[in-house]
Amino acid sequence: MQSPLMPHLDAIRARFAHVETCPFEGPRVFFENAGGALRLKSVIETSAAYAGYPDNQGRDNAASRALMAAIAKGKADARLFLNAPEGEIFVGESGTEVLFRLIRTAALGAEDDGAMLGSTLEHPASRSAMARWAEVTGRPHILVAHDDATGTVTPEAYAEKLTPDLRVATIVQTSPVTGMAVDVARIAAMIRKAAPDCLIIVDGIQHASHGNIDIAGYGIDGYAISPYKVFSRHGYGLGWASDRLTGFTKESVVGGSPRNWEQGTRDAGAYATFSDVVAYFDWLGGITGGGDTPRARIESAAAAIHDHESALMGAILKGEGNRRGLADMPGVTLIGGQGEGREGVVSFTLDAVPARDLVAHLNARGIRTHIRLNDHYCGNILAPLGMESCVRASICHYNSPAEVARFLDAVEEVAG
Question: Which domain of life is it from (predicted)?
Fold first, then answer.
C-alpha cells in the first residue's frame, strides 16, 4: 500500500501510547478509534505535570503567569488548528456539553419565532440539544432525512427544507456510525443564502482526527470537537463561537466579561494538552509535505492523514493482494455502501454471526472493535435499516496495512 505516511509510520506510531498493546489485555490491534483515539505520549506527560501544579490563575506569581501563558498558547494553537482567526475559543466539560451550550445560546439569542433545522444523520448530542431548545423556544425542529443507502446527508436534501425564517441550523461533519462525511461548506452557504441571519452550529467531533478543519471557509457560528478523539485526553471539550454568537447573552458571573464562555476556573492542562495535539500536526506536516507556516504544515498533515486512511479503508472494503475486502465477503452488509467519503469508520453486519459475537470473535483474535446498537445513540441509523446492531471498525492514521490484514483475516474466518 502506498501513502505519504508509510515511510514515516514507525516514527508516527512511536509518538503514541499503547499502539500495539492494551495495558489490560496485552497485544492487540486498535480499531476502536471512533470511540476515542490513541493518546499522544506528550499529552500524557503534560497532563501529569499540570495535574500536580497547586497554583491558580490570575495571581501575581511566576507559576500563575505560566498557567495563564499555557491557556493563551492553547487558544492560539486551537485557532491555527481550526483556522479560526475571529471569534472565541473555549473549553467545556465535553464535546457534547459544548454543543449543548452553543445551541442553547443560539436558540435563546436568535430572533423570535422561525424554525430550527437539523438532520437525521446527527449524533444525539446536537439533535437532542436542538430538540430541547426548539421545544423551550416554541419553534418547530425540522429534520432533513439522510440517505440510508449512502449513509450521509446531501446539500440537495438540505435545500428542500430551507426557508427564510430559519433561526438555528446544525450540521454533523462526519457520522460516527456510517463514517460518511458531509459537505459542510456547501450546506452552510445554502443555509446562509436562504436565511442570512440563521446561526449555524457544526459537530466536528468525528471529523477532527481525519481531515482538515477550515472554520474561516465555512461561514458558520459554532464548532465543537472532543479532544480525546483527536489524540488528547478525556475531561474537556473544545468549542469555537463566532463574534455574533458570542455577543448573545450567556450564563456568566455578574460583572464578568460578556465575551467569556467559560465558567469557573478551567484546567490549564486542557489547553496545554491541546497545544501538544497541534504541535504533533505541525511535526507531521513538516515530514510529509512541509510548509512555511504552522497552518500550512497542519494542512499538509491533514492531507497526508486523509490519503493514508483512504488507502487503509480501500483495503478494508475492497481487499489487497490475495485477501478479500468486506465488500466481497459473503453475507457482509456495509452500512453506507461502498461510496466515497468515508472518514475512518466502517460499520457492517455479517448474516451468519450476530454483531455481539463477531465483536467477541475479533477481540479474541486481538482486534478491538465495537458493537453499535439500535438505541438512543445509533437508532437513527440502524432503525431505518431494520437492524438491531452492527460492528463498527474505526481506524486512524497510525494504523498499518499489517493491522488491516489481521482484521480481514479474522473476519474471513467466520465469513468464509
Answer: Bacteria
